[in-house]
Every structure is written in structure tokens, then in C-alpha cells.
Amino acid sequence: MRGGILAALGLLSGSLLFRSRDKNSCSSGFDCSSCSRSKSCMLPAAMGARQMVWQLDPARCIQCGRCATNCVMSPSAVKCTHAFAMCGYCDLCGGYFKPGTKTLDTAAEHQLCPTNALKRKFIEDPFFEYTVNEELCIGCGKCVKGCGAFGNGSLQLQVRHDCCKNCNECSIARNCPSQAFTRVPANKPSLLKSFGNAKTAILTGVAALLSTAAMAIQRFPKPEFESAYTQPQTQIPLPRGEFLACLDVIVLFVLLSVVTWLVLKKRSRLWVFAMSVFSLVYFGFYREGCVCSIGAIQNVSLALFDNTFILPLSVVLFFALPLVFTLFFGRTFCAAVCPFGAMQDFFAFKPQALGPRLNTVLGIIPYLYLGLAVLFAATGTDFIICRYDPFVGIFRFNASFSMFLFSGILLLSGVFIARPYCRFLCPYGVLLNWTSRFSRKHLSITPSECIQCRLCENSCPYDAIDIPVTTKSPESRPAMVKKMMILTVLIPFLVLAFGYTGSRLHETLAGVDSRVKLAKEVLAISKSSDLKEKKTGANSNSAVAEESYEIKAYKSSGKTEAQVYEEASMVLKKFYVGGWLFGGFIGLVFGMMTAGRMMPVYRTDYVTNKGRCFSCARCVDYCPVKS
Amino acid sequence: MKQKIFIISGLILLVAVIAIMLADLFSSKKADQANPYDYKLGELKKTDSSLNAYSEQLIIKPELEEIHAIACGPGDRIYVAGKNGLEVYNMDGKPDGNFRFEGVASCLALDKKGDIFIGIQEHVEVFDQIGRPLKKWKSISGESVLTGIAVSDSFVFLADAGKKIVYRYDHSGRLINRIGEKDPQKNIPGFIVPSPYFDLALGTKGELWVANTGRHSLEQFSNDGSLNSAWGEASMAVDGFCGCCNPSHFAFLSDGSFVTSEKGIERVKVFSPQGVFKCIVAPPSAFIEGTRGLDLAVDSEDRIIVLDPEKNLVRIFVKK
Question: Structure pTM?
Fold first, then answer.
């Protein structure tokens, strides 16, 4: 079974990373960003390109201001960036001056920027240079809007990678009404509009030059300065080095190995605790909780269903390594490698035993969470595990009040219910639970023979110790056959019944998707305008309510209503199928739980529950048998 | 008892967390629309309706793609040029001919005879009224971008936005001289062209006017390149030219008044021959936000013909 799981993991990783075997040639001239095979290519350039970072596409940006208000960083990691090559060096700069300014000087009251982050310097008549003070810039996009409306659009919003945490799910991306946020290869981390090469650009045609869209790609001859002024180069900070992602994987592997050794060989709770402190510091506060194995579920799910999504090798390893270790040694990842677990461990001051029933009922939640997380990720809707990551704000010392409140409530509940997230929410815990059941060398309470001293009975704060069950005589063969027959009917029935229920809920589930939300909004507007026309005549000029940013973005994208509905319809179809699968999965979980309860259990010793045990080694300290 | 209280407290908090997550995930509330940093361009585009002295009389829907240039020719026929072709309409907006050519026209003018001069990227092609090619001038320069053309009885003036210069040619395509090069001794400031909008036109007396868009002014040159006069003011207000580079296009009424069009704040206005603001032809509300390249022409009845490339329309305005 272990071999089967291992093979499945290997196949999954392999298929996601190395679909192509072409190592010898590059037909795209090593331009990975435009190559359709970059996802599967094994050339070094393509492997580098697979490290992805967030970036904003200025061509789609509508300057809604959400970059300033939705970034997990404060101030935002999105800053105004000046593409000097596009700048007209205008005296009357639409990005610098407030509208209606008569005196074109640097007085604060004339400046459009709310933080005075844009600096104006006289070069020579009639040219002025504008530079951005990034420490002051909050990424509000006000100057970008002014420059785009009245000028060449040289002021553009860009994610500054030296400020960006490169969250697995970017908070701005989730809220961006124009889907301007996208993942780009780390070796090409900018989407800054530039005019490109002057001659080439102009040769591409006057028509393109004169069109609004073409302004993005054309270079116009820059002003001919007579003074010694040299046009500055636009600086784009590079993202975190790829070798650091490799370092993270190495640290993960070493930590898993060390913790496994400490748990199984050293059997030392103290050292396990020390390692959990290290994990909390490294993966939590230093790496700020991203990317983690839990969130990696979504990346893997999306990559499985979306061929265009590039899955970095480091993410695959973050997903697979803990599972592989668990398959052989139990959940040592949960013991001291996962920063979430470590964080909650510190708050388990008054852990209470919940009892088997409560554990069973609450234990269903992670399955639901996993199902929803995979469904939303696979449909490209949302990364909900990251969206409701309870600790990332604490790791970053930077979050909204509601995010801190959310973390606070969870940690507070953890005072009485030890590791509430790990036990009753963590979707990755479901996968670890499954694989751990097949682990060969799992932590045992006693190193040799249990002496039934009962000292460990209450040692586990996670209710993961199975107490001996009074020996019963084996059930009769007909009774077992009857049970098996019931299960044979019951499990498929539950899978179908829940699957059907899931499919019926597909519209509700799809309602989370921004494309479906947009379609609903467009439909509502369309209906209301039809109604208005009927009431007041076709050429009514009555005032209309201000459009939402989503509608503005849709209009500026040039999409037709039919296209919006078509997109939403595709999403709904995906959710219909996904609803069946999600429901079926939950039905199967219920079925297997029922089967587990129906099967007779015989246990003579106090043993760890392989599925639920976090291998934290607390119980080991209680066992008087030391060798 | 104490244990139960602890468990219940813990459970309540855990359920609260899950409830918050579900409520947030499945709530149908719209994303927050508040933008504390909103730059309301709409406010700038509001105009006093009493200044609107024109009304839209006629709309023509050309079949061409990427329309960029318009001109009025003999018999007040309207010529529209764009990608790979030209269409002709009579003064009532009815189609009156068309022909095809290779390339994207960026500027267009006709001489008295009715020959059509079309600026295509960095060269000029001349056609007769039925579209027979008469001459193809040699390319000016690889960096040239022709954005304006005007034809007098003896000369053809070309505005090259790429080189930021105006050329004077004879009708055969021979370069005579360059106009507008920076020359402090002659008090010529030079053209500032921050974006590819650089128009020129001939006044009622045949004098050459050029839009120095970076300086927000209209400058009048003699044929030898001397700068005679200039007017214009940078301002978001209705009596000035907004943004980095305006007016993007202009034309003349029969009394010598200037008709100007702008980008940024999309509007068409009339100024007196002395450069004093007179009235609005088309306010910003008449155009889609972001419209650029509103080329202009005026017919013998002083109807103002506006090319709206965003809507792909030719719009004709008449005085109320």
C-alpha cells in the first residue's frame, strides 16, 4: 500500500513537472514566457522560469485603489513605477498636478499624490523629470490615472518584489476587479509597459502608434536634452532568489529528517519542542508562512486541472515531502515542522479531552474544507486555504484587524481545545491522516511492551491515544457478511446521494467565483436598463447609479456581455462536475466513517492512533518503560 | 463541571471561526467599492452646457477599420482613411466611392484638383479621385511618423511626429525646406511632441499653423520657417489645452476661427482667430472616456466634421 501511495505521489509530481523530455533544443529561443511548453520543459531556463511571482499588468489596471487598501503589507507592496523611456517630461504633468492648478510649481497643495511621493525636478526648458519616492508611495494609482488620462502613461503601478511577500494567494489579486494581477516567471518579474525599441516600434505601423492600446508598446523618440541630463533607467527589484526557495526545501527536508529521528529514535519531547520553536521562527516568522505544505494543496489542484498554471518545483516538494515522510514515519511534520502546529502548541494551556463522539463530528470539518479547497482551486476560483490562513498575519506582524481577530479567536479556542486548526480544520491534515495510517515506523508510546500502567492515558492533549478495548469474541460470520452487504450498498448510496446534493449546490458554490459574480452583476444591470427603457423610452438620459469597479473593468476590457455570460457558464459547468465530485467525496467519507464504526475493534494496549497522532512525543515522557 | 465549561467555551470559539469563514466565503455582498484615493476625472469633464453652441447633425458609419484621418474635399465630399483603404461620402453622409491601398493611413489632405494625399507611416502616396495611384513618395526616414498633412496650391506640408519637424515639399514630392527646428536666434522654441499627436493645417489665407502640443500652443510659420505668432495656454479649464500634449488636432472655420480637439479631456472647441475661447462643439460627455485622435475637418458650410476612432464614426456638428 505504501508503495502504491509513493508511486502515486511520484507520478503526480512527475506529470506536473516533467511532461516533456526534450532537453536538447529550444524552439522558442529560450523565451519561456511566450513558450507553450515552458511548463514541462526541462531546460534550465524553463526550470528557472517556473518560480513564479505576482505582478500587475498595467494594461488591465483601472486604478481602483484596491492595491493600496488590499495588500497584506502596509504600505502596499504595489508602488508607482516610472517608465522614464515613455515619459514626455511635461511641464503640466497630469500625474503630478491636481486638476485646475494654475501655478505649475512644487507647492504641496498643487500635488495630486496624497503622500507627496512624486518628485518634480526641472531639467531644462520645457522639460521636468518626475521620480517616485517609494518609501512614501502607497500604490493608490492616482498619479497613474492622471498620467494615463492626460499623458503617455509612463507612471504605472507595479509590484515591487523587494516589498512583496509573494503570498501563495495575493490578497490584491483576489480583490482586483480587472484581473490585472497575474503570476509571472521570477526571471521576468516585470510587466511594465515600455515603448520598446524605437525603430522597431515605429516600423510596426502608424495605426498601432495612434491607437490607445498601442501606446503601451510604442517608443516615441525621447526628448532631446541639451543639458547633461541622462535619462534614468527604470529599476525593477528582482524577486527573492531562486536558490532561497531551494534552501527552504533543503531546510524542510533536514528538519523532517531531524524531527523524525528525534521522535522515533531519541524519543525526546524536549528536543521535538526545540525543533518546533526553530520551525516557528524559520517557516513562520522568517519565511512568513508562505509557501506552506497546507496551501500547496491548492497549487497542485490547480495545476492538475489547468495546463497553463505553472507549478514550481519547490511547491511540489513542499506538498510531497511531508507526505512521503508521513508514509514511512507518521506525522512528524505536524510534530515540529509545521509552524501552524508549533504556534498552536504554545497556546494549549488547558487542553480538554473532547471524547470520541465530538472528535468524530468535528473531524468531518477538515474533509469538507479539503473538498472545498480543491474544488475552488481546481476551478480557478480562489485559494481559500490561504484566504483563511489564520496565522500568516501574526507571522508578518501585519494584517487587518479582522484577520488578527480571526487568529485571536482561533488561538483562544486553542487554550481549551489543543491545536484546533490542526485537528478540526487543516485540509492537509486529512492527507497526512490517510498516509500516516500506512506508516511502518510510527511513534509508539512505549518502546517495548506496554505494562498497562495507564500513566499515558490522559497525556495526549489531542485525544490521539486509543485505549485498550475489552476483548470481545469475534463476531459470527453471518453477522460480518450482513455488515459487509450493508456497507456495499450504503457506501455507493451515500456517494451518489451526496454527489447529487453537491451538484444541486453548484450554483451556490460557483457564486464565490468572481466571473460568476460579474455575470450576475452584468445581468442585473442589463435587466434594470431594459426595464428603464420600457418605462421611460429608449433614449432616456436619466441619471444612472455609479458603476462598480467590476463593471468599469469589464467595460474597459472590451468584452461583450455574451462573453461574460459564456465565461460564467463555463465556470458553472465546472462547478456542476466539481459539485458531483465534492459531494461524492463527502459521501465516501461518511461511508468510510460508518464502516469504521461498524467494524469490530480489538486492542489490548495503549497505542497511538496512527491517523490522528501528531507524533509530538508528549506521551513518551509519561511512559515509565524507557528501553 | 469546570471541564465542560472549558470545552463549551472552546467549541463556541471554534464554531465562531468556522461561521466567520463560511459567512465571508458565501456572502453575496459586493466587494468594497470605496476608494479613498479616487481621482474623479468625471468632475474635470463637466462643462457648462450654455457653452455648447453646436449640435450633432449627422453620423456616418464607415466600414473601414482603424480610421485615423479625415478631410473635406471638392463638393464638400468627406474623405475618411484608415487601415488599407479610403471611403468617400457626400455631404448627406451617403457613400460616394472608396478604394483600397496598402498600409494604415495616418493623415489625409486633398488639393484643389481633388488629388488625394495620404500619409502612410513614413511616406506619402498620392491618388486621384477614383483611387488610381499617381505617385508614391520616397520614405522620409525610418523614425518618421507622419501625423499631419496640408496641401496648398504650391506646396505639401507634412508634420513628422517621429522627427518632431515639419517638412515643406512641392507637389512632386521634392523636399524644399524644414520648418520648426529649434533656433534660439530666430526665436523658434522647437516642437515638443511627447506623444504621437502633431497636427498642422492651413489658415484661411493659406498660412501654415502647427500644433506645438508639448507647449500647448498653435504656432504660425511662414514658408521659410520663420515663426510669426503663437497662442495657447496649458489648462484643464475649458479655455485652455489640457494634459501633456494638446490640441491633438485642429482645423479652420471660414472666418479664420480655430476648431481644436483634445485628448485626456475629450472635447472639441472653437477659438477665435486671435485664440480666444468661443464655444464648445462637442463636450467630453459626447465621447467614450479615453478617446484619442479626434481628427477634424470643416466643410464649406462650416459644418464641423469629427472623426471618432473609438466609436468608429464620423460625426458632423452644426451651429445651433
Answer: 0.79
